């Protein structure tokens, strides 16, 4: 064999070895801890659900699954960090319906939810509940609407950030009822809840898991919630449809995403692990306890759902006139 042929043969063998090693690495995935970036403050619904599912994923994958909170810019800081991370499956994003909203809310955004990520699984969805500080003299959505009208722009409603589902629900309520409540954004639902209990703000269209314990403790008063049916853990609270506002039907969802370019076998492995984790009876019970509806679908189902959500929320953002830049 001449030198040229020998060199070509060695190069081919080397390439095959690299391909086999790469394939073997994917087959062995994961071999080290996986990091879930939660782009909101600790203690909110996004953080709690990520930790519940992440713990069971760790059991499924045989590696630690750790949560890293990177709050800021309505979830965009954490999203950009994951979009720019190595597409190897070891850094994934806990995104929410807020990220679908951001695609229209921000005219300039450093990532695309549909192009820069591979959707792994939709973990759960939750209804929004209108809660008020007990000092507010309203015990129904209709009474609250009348009270808010009388307050003009002196009544504030909180949310976990500009452009969140909670924010847009408040703006939608303003439009439907003719109120002029002022929006006060926080860096996460837990922080908003603290000021709501303290009376610094008067109302909030909150993700149910964020406020359920405070409602049950009597620290917040629930008036109505989104969805088609009442909740077993809050049977006395009517739906907005029952209260006369059927247009108030927004829900928040929580899903895991990997950076675009993550190898298909790794995406499949993560997606399957998440689905198995969500299907676990203990996880199902915990999500139900939190007030969340478990989903745990696959990449094939979640990816087109995300595309549709970006369109749906985009239309609502445009109708509301909300913007941040």
UniProtKB/TrEMBL annotation:
Keywords: Signal. Residues 1-23 form the signal peptide. The keyword Signal applies. It comes from the Bacteria. The keyword Magnesium does not apply. It holds the Pfam family TctC. Belongs to the UPF0065 (bug) family. PANTHER family: BLR1237 PROTEIN, TRICARBOXYLATE-BINDING PROTEIN. This is Tripartite tricarboxylate transporter substrate binding protein. The lineage of its organism: Bacteria, Pseudomonadati, Pseudomonadota, Betaproteobacteria, Burkholderiales.
């Amino acid at each position: 064999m001449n030198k040229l042929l020998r060199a070509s043969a060695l190069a081919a063998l080397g390439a095959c070895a690299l391909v086999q090693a790469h394939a073997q690495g994917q087959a062995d995935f994961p071999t080290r801890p996986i990091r879930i970036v939660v782009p909101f403050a600790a203690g909110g619904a996004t953080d709690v659900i990520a930790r519940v599912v992440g713990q069971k994923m760790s059991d499924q994958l045989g590696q630690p699954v750790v949560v890293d909170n990177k709050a800021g810019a309505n979830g965009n800081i954490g999203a950009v960090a994951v979009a720019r991370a190595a597409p190897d499956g070891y850094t994934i994003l806990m995104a929410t319906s807020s990220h679908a909203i951001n695609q229209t809310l921000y005219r300039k955004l450093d990532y695309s939810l549909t192009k820069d990520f591979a959707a792994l699984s939709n973990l759960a969805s939750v209804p929004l509940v209108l809660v008020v500080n007990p000092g507010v003299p309203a015990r129904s959505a209709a009474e609250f609407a009348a009270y808010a009208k009388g307050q003009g722009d002196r009544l504030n409603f909180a949310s976990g950030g500009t452009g969140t589902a909670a924010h847009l629900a408040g703006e939608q309520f303003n439009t439907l009822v003719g109120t002029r409540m002022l929006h006060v954004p926080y860096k996460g639902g837990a922080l908003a809840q603290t000021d709501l209990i303290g009376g610094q703000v008067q109302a909030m269209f909150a993700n149910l898991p964020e406020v359920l314990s405070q409602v049950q403790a009597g620290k917040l008063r629930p008036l109505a919630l989104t969805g088609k049916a009442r909740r077993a853990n809050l049977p006395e609270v009517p739906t907005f449809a029952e209260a006369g506002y059927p247009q108030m039907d927004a829900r928040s969802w929580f899903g895991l995403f990997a950076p675009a370019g993550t190898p298909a076998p790794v995406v499949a492995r993560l997606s399957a692990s998440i689905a198995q984790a969500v299907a676990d009876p203990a996880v199902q019970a915990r999500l139900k306890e939190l007030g969340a509806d478990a989903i745990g679908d696959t990449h094939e189902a979640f990816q087109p759902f995300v595309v549709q959500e970006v369109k749906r929320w985009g239309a609502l953002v445009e109708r509301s006139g909300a913007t941040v830049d």
